[in-house]
Amino acid sequence: MPTTSTFLPTYASIDLSALAYNLAQFRRILSPGCDIMAVVKANAYGHGAVETGKALIRQGVSRVAVVSIDEGIALRQAGINAPIVILGPLFRNQLSDLFAHQLTPVVSDASLLPALAQAASSFPTPYPIHLKVETGMGRLGLTQDELTKLLDHRKFPGTLQLEGLMTHLADADGPDSGTTQEQLARFREAIRTVAAGGFRVPLIHAASSGGAVRFPETQFTLVRPGIMLYGYHTLPSSVAVPDLKPVLSLRTSIAQLRTVQPGHKVSYGGTFTAKRAATIAILPIGYADGVSRHLSNRGHVLIHGQRAPIAGIVCMDMIMVDVTDIAGAAVGDEAVLIGRQGDERITADDIARWTGTIPYEVLCTIGPRVPRQYLSS
Fold first, then answer.
1. What is the pLDDT tens value at each position of the chain, 377 positions in all?
2. Whose CA is closest to 23, among 243, 250, 217, 349?
3. 42, 66, 48, 43: which is closest to 12 by C-alpha?
């Protein structure tokens, strides 16, 4: 049930039963012994990191991942006690917060290890960290030479535990597999280097959602699903994907109706001109809430189970839609931007196609002033 009874004209509804379903479907493709670290960065891709993280942990997920120390602290302060891995860059002046909240860092720069080791010396047992290897993403990570020097010369500090070794795939959802296979070859070399150094690393991980599905050999002992937990993917149509259910819907209500005459312009810049007497509905949601300006004169919403085209430029706080052909449209009626109404449905994939982006961005840009309501699993 929704968490509040207060009327909210605009809100996002998060279906935790769909989240649990997607998790179960994803688990079916995993190799025996492969565990899941659920990615809840960027406010769980717009779904709400705290509630989503707690729901995933209730479903047996053993650890979660975020990108920043601040994101990790927010989860700790909300009562999440499971291991929290920080995927993003680590800075020296963040070490006190890292240790105070017992967050697990991913180290991509060997020069940080002395300071990290010194800060960890007050703990009774070695503090867990993950090392990230750069294999072709061109982003964060140790090179193979840096990893070899670190481990061959026994420079790895005794106050730290090498719990994980990871890389990130740059093209798991691309048209061919060549780049991924090259990265895997480099990562396997890194795994051999670690083993030759005498380290037993329990968590080896390379794959996010798409990589784990398309390339089973990338699963190792841990995978990092993100977008598939929330009901979407960006894999080619030739790849068999688990059955998924979108978790989030985005809804608002008609705030006002007005009739405009032929030739009348609507919204900034007058980019929409009525060609007939038209009924325009004003909706209290705009680009500050995550409705892309690229949807201007292009996107649709659902009202009474019918598609109503966006009329004119998307404003910061409002959009206008043409409801001339929707009989009985009235103030207070529900308008669906993402989700199902009647026999019609609009997905984040649809919006991504209309705006030239990916569903990740559509979901992540739903703004913080949009309340999230959670339907229990």
1. 445 457 899 999 999 999 999 999 999 999 999 999 999 999 999 999 999 999 999 999 999 999 999 999 999 999 999 999 999 999 999 999 999 999 999 999 999 999 999 999 999 999 999 999 999 999 999 999 999 999 876 778 999 999 999 999 999 999 889 999 999 999 999 999 999 999 999 999 999 999 999 999 999 999 999 999 999 999 999 999 999 999 999 999 999 999 999 999 999 999 999 999 999 999 999 999 999 999 999 999 999 999 999 999 999 999 999 999 999 999 999 999 999 999 999 999 999 999 999 999 999 999 999 999 999 86
2. 243
3. 48
245: annotated active-site residue: no
pTM: 0.94
* Active-site hit among 41, 230, 232, 374: 41
Architecture field, domain 248-375: Beta Barrel (2.40)
Nearest to 369 by CA among 7, 3, 8, 16: 8
State how beta strands 104-107 and 84-86 pair.
parallel
Instruction: Give the SS3 label for residue 96.
Output: helix
Task: Tell me which fold the domain 31-230 belongs to.
Answer: TIM Barrel (3.20.20)
Domain ranges of the chain: 31-230, 248-375
Tokens of 349: 């994939």
Please confirm, yes or no, whether 268 is among the known catalytic residues: yes
Query: Cα–Cα distance between 117 and 342 in angstroms, integer?
Result: 58
Signed CA dihedral, 301, 306, 312, 318: sign only: negative
| Residue among 11, 21, 54, 268 flagged as catalytic | 268
Cα 296–chain centre separation:
25
Q: Which helix (H) or strand (E) holds 376?
A: none
Burial-class residue 122 by CB neighbours within 10 Å (0-12, 13-18, 19+). exposed
